[in-house]
Write a structure and sequence with these properties.
By secondary structure, the chain is α/β, with parallel strands linked by helices. Helices cover 34% and strands 10% of the residues. It folds into 2 domains: 99-353, Type I PLP-dependent aspartate aminotransferase-like (Major domain) (Aspartate Aminotransferase, domain 2), CATH 3.40.640.10; 356-478, Aspartate Aminotransferase, domain 1 (Alpha-Beta Complex). The chain has helices spanning 17-21, 63-75, 97-103, 106-109, 121-138, 150-167, 185-192, 210-213, 239-248, 281-284, 341-377, 407-416, 444-463, 465-469, 482-487, and strands spanning 142-144, 175-179, 196-200, 221-227, 252-257, 276-279, 299-301, 313-316, 321-324, 393-396, 423-424, 433-436. α9 (239-248) links the parallel β4 (221-227) and β5 (252-257). α5 (121-138) packs parallel to α11 (341-377) and α11 (341-377) packs across α13 (444-463). The protein is globular and about 80 Å long. The protein starts with 16 loop residues before the first helix and ends in a 14-residue tail after the last helix. The structure holds pyridoxal-5'-phosphate.
């Protein structure tokens, strides 16, 4: 197998780097407009106070130069439309283009959130029905679509759990049990809501053992925050037993349902005793994401927590949809308006296109794909939890470390083979974790190419470790100081930095 340049537009460039960015030629313009013939009108520049003095000379380019510049830059990026994006816990599935078309229908995209209710009936209907589908999928009885991301859904859930206990005069119930494999947002949301995060250990099979929660079953217990399947890609087989124990001790059960890809159409969290969960529409229900948004993290709740949902709630009488504000126990508003509506349109289109059978098939296929990859890699990589997995599998670098090769090296070398690296070093409980989630979108052929690349890298690690250690060799950017890049992100090209930012 040959390495391939994942950024084809960057290869064979005849330009020097600075020339790619330095295209300005004095006097060049991007459009030809007729002379101003609007007599009596004059347009002055704004007041000096509003003009930036530090800009010396805007680029002067023609339209063609401009189009080529941005097209070239866009091709230096990797995306799910270009190749497999196996980031575990991110569910980077293919996002059908029809969803984009639908979310751009002017009736949706130009409906102002302040439009009067009688003129927004179509949008309200869509949200009402989407909430109904999410109730069906989660097996829970009420939904709010307001949270703008998974983490905000968690916060909503934790605020509702807190409000429930306060309403029962149980203000001492603050402990929330969170497994050590949880996503970092879980303890953060819990603490933001005024509760206390208590870390509990996963068992040697990667699952939660009911025994470990026993010491915490007392009247300080607020609840548990479980992820299912957990971030090791393993189904929590004791979920229903644990829910019973938590309920008997007076606590509530939160499920982090960011990744519902393996469950939908097969298992309803409500049947496992879950009281509240969030659902990442931008993962499971298809919306382009990454790079910070946009997201949508609706919360679904059981009867117990329904009175605490954020307001307003969309309701329906015989003839119309309306907003219900009169809910005295509500935790209040979480979003200026209704949430990220365009993401909801995509999720609605996705669910309606697939139907109940299609939704189930997605879950089955994503599980099959992850297990296919896990089995093909079983001999070449160490599997810390070798059981059947759900929508994602976790390997690590244990077999490669004897040659001085780390997970980071493997991830970087994958780029030379044209793949976006998987999630690395997460979950934290697996040393050197490599977490792969192919989703249902990838064909057997695509997965075979990915598997082949990893098998090659495992061989290279033994036979030619230097090439792996010094990877990536082909992409535009080599190894970055990722911490520095995250802390001190510079997105503007300047001449002396030669485009390295
Ligand atoms: C992605 C994810 C989250 C957070 O969702 P955001 O929309 O990024 O806030 C929480 N938990 C798990 C398990 C996730 O994978």
């Amino acid at each position: 197998m040959n390495c391939k340049d994942p950024f084809p537009a960057a290869s064979g460039l005849i330009f020097d780097e600075p020339l790619i960015f330095k295209r300005s030629v004095p006097g060049r313009v991007g459009c030809s407009l007729p002379e101003d013939d609007m007599e009596g009108f004059s347009f002055d520049l704004p007041d000096d106070r509003y003009l930036r003095q530090d800009i010396h000379g805007m680029p002067e380019v023609c339209e063609l130069d401009m189009v080529r510049h941005y097209t070239r830059l866009s091709q230096w990026n990797y995306s799910v439309d270009l190749g497999m994006y196996p980031l575990g816990s991110c569910t980077m599935k293919y996002n059908p283009k029809v969803n984009e078309e639908l979310s751009n229908i002017p009736g949706f995209s130009q409906c102002h959130p302040h439009s009067p209710i009688h003129l927004s009936q179509g949008s309200l209907k869509l949200m009402f029905e989407l909430a109904d589908y999410l109730k069906e999928i989660s097996g829970l009885s009420a939904v709010s679509l307001q949270p703008a991301a998974g983490a905000q859904g968690e916060l909503a859930g934790m605020l509702m759990i807190r409000a429930w206990h306060l309403n029962n005069n149980d203000e001492q119930r603050v402990n929330v049990l969170i497994p050590d494999s949880a996503h970092g947002t879980n303890p953060a949301s819990c603490v933001l809501a005024g509760l206390k995060a208590v870390e509990i250990k996963s068992g040697s099979d990667g699952r939660l053992d009911p025994e470990v929660i026993k010491p915490w079953l007392n009247d300080s217990l607020a609840g548990i925050m479980m992820t299912n399947p957990n971030t090791l890609g393993i189904f929590e087989t004791h979920a229903d037993t644990i829910s019973d124990m938590i309920h008997q001790a007076g606590g509530l059960v939160y499920m982090d349902g960011a990744n519902l890809n393996a469950l939908m159409g097969i298992v309803k969290p409500g049947d496992l005793g879950v009281d509240v969960q969030h659902i990442n529409l931008h993962k499971t229900f298809s919306t382009p994401h990454g790079g910070g948004g946009p997201g949508s993290g609706p919360v679904a709740v059981s009867d117990k927590l329904a009175p605490f949902l954020p307001i307003p709630i969309i309701e329906k009488d015989d003839s119309r949809y309306f907003l219900q504000w009169d809910r005295p126990l509500s935790i209040g508003r979480l979003h200026g308006f209704f949430g990220n509506f365009a993401v909801m349109v995509r999720a609605y289109a996705y669910i309606r296109t697939l139907g109940p059978e299609g939704i189930k098939k997605i879950a089955q296929t994503s599980i099959l794909n992850a297990n296919y990859i896990q089995e093909q890699l079983r001999d070449a990589f160490h599997l810390p939890y070798p059981d059947v997995c759900k929508h994602e599998c976790v390997l690590n670098d244990q077999l490669q470390s004897q040659y001085g090769i780390t997970t980071m090296d493997i991830a970087k070398r994958l780029m030379d083979y044209g793949f976006h690296p998987p999630t690395v070093y997460f979950p934290l409980i697996v040393q050197g974790a490599i977490m792969i989630e192919p989703t249902e979108s990838e064909s057997r052929r695509n997965m075979d190419q990915f598997i082949n690349a990893l098998l090659h890298i495992a061989r290279e690690a033994k036979e030619n470790p230097e090439i792996v250690k010094s990877a990536p060799h082909l992409p535009k950017m080599k190894r970055l100081d990722e911490t520095l890049a995250a802390r001190n992100l510079t997105l503007r090209w300047t001449e002396d930095e030669q485009g390295d930012t």
